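queue> holo job accepted (alpha-D-galactopyranose)
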Amino acid sequence: MHLIVTSLRHVFSTKFDEQPTIFRSPGRINIIGEHTDYNDGFVLPAAIDKAVYIAIAPRKDTIISLFAVAYNKSFEINLEDIAITKRGWPNYILGVVHELQQRGHLPGGFNMVIDADLPVGAGLSSSAAIECAAVFALNEIFSMQLSKMEMIHIAQKAEHTFAGVMCGIMDQFASMFGRKGFVMKLDCRSMEYEYVPFDTMGMKILMLNTNVKHTLASTEYNVRREECQKGLSWVQEKYPEVKALRDVTEQMLNEDVKPRDKVIDSRCRFIVQEIQRLQLACIDLLNKDMESVGKKMLATHSGLQHLYGVSCKELDYLVDAVKDHPGVLGARMMGGGFGGCTINLVKEKYVDEIISLLEKKYEADMKLPLTAFTVEIENGTEKIQ
Ligand code: GLA
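queue> job finished
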C-alpha cells in the first residue's frame, strides 16, 4: 500500500503541481450469497486488502481532469458536458458525478489520479471500488455531508446508468462498509447489516484468477435479472403477497414456474436455495464450523454452474481441480460469473502446494495463465492522507 500511495502522490504533484488528498477503496470477496442481492436476499461479503487508490484536489473552474496510471491515459471534460464516453474507464467517475448532479450536489471541477493493486475484470468489483472511491472523495473535498448509505446508492446508480450493468447493491456496500476481520451479513431488502467475525483459524482465502475477462457478464447479468423477474411474476399471479424471490419457496416454484419453463425454474430455484444456504452458513460461521461453510460454497458453485448458468469451463476446471484436495475446505466461482476468480478456503500450509500443483496444469489445459493470490479482510473506503 505504501508504495502505491507514494507513487500516486508523486504522479499527482508532477502532473498538477499541487498536493492531493488520497483515498483508498477496496475490492470485495463474497463468502456465499451470489446473485441474491437483486432478489431482496442476503449476501455475506467483505472488503479486501486489494484496492483502488485515488489522489484528488478541487479546482477553481468546472473542468474534471482525470489520469489513469494503469492505462497511462488522461481524460478531460467540463462539468456541463458530462455524458457517457466511448473511452471506457472514465465512465465510472463520470457516472458518479452525473448522479451527484442529478441530486442537486454540484461539485466544482477537480483533478484526479487513479491507481490500483486490484485486478480489473477479475470479479473482485474494481468498478464498485472506483465508484465508491469517487463518491467518497468528492463528498469529502466538497463537504457534501452524504451518509455512507446515500453514497453507495449513488455509486450503484452510476454503474446502472454509465456502465450499463443493472447490478445489485452488494459490491458498493462491501467496498464502503468493510471492516477488518469481519464479513458482513447484509439484508438487501431492509439494508440492515451485521458484522460477523471471520475467524480464519489457520486458513487463507485464496483467489484463483481464470484470467477470462468476463465480457459476457454484463449482458448475461441483465438477462438473469429478467429471468428472475419473469419467474417472480408467475408466482405472484397466485401469491400476490410475494414481493421478491426472497419470499418464494421451492413449493411455489413447483406449482407455478416449473410447469411453465424449465430454465426460468432453475434460475429461480438457485436463488431460493442460495438464500437458505446463506442463512445456514451464517450459523456455521458463528459455530466456527468452517468445514460446513466450505461444503456450502461447493454447493453454491454447483448451483451457479448447473441451475443459474453463470459459470464457464475455466471456473469449473479450477473448482474441480481443488475440491477433493485435503487442504481445501471450500471453493466456488465468485461474483457475477463468466470469468474472473474462484474463491477458495485453504489450510495455510497447503496454499503454496496448491498453487504450484495448479499453475502449469491450468495453463496447459486452458491455454491461459493462472494468477493466484491470497487476500486479507480489510477496512472499507477511507481517506488515507
Ligand atoms: C456482481 C454485481 C452484484 C452481485 C454479484 C453476484 O458483482 O455487481 O450486485 O449481483 O454480481 O452476486
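queue> The longest strand covers residues 45-58.
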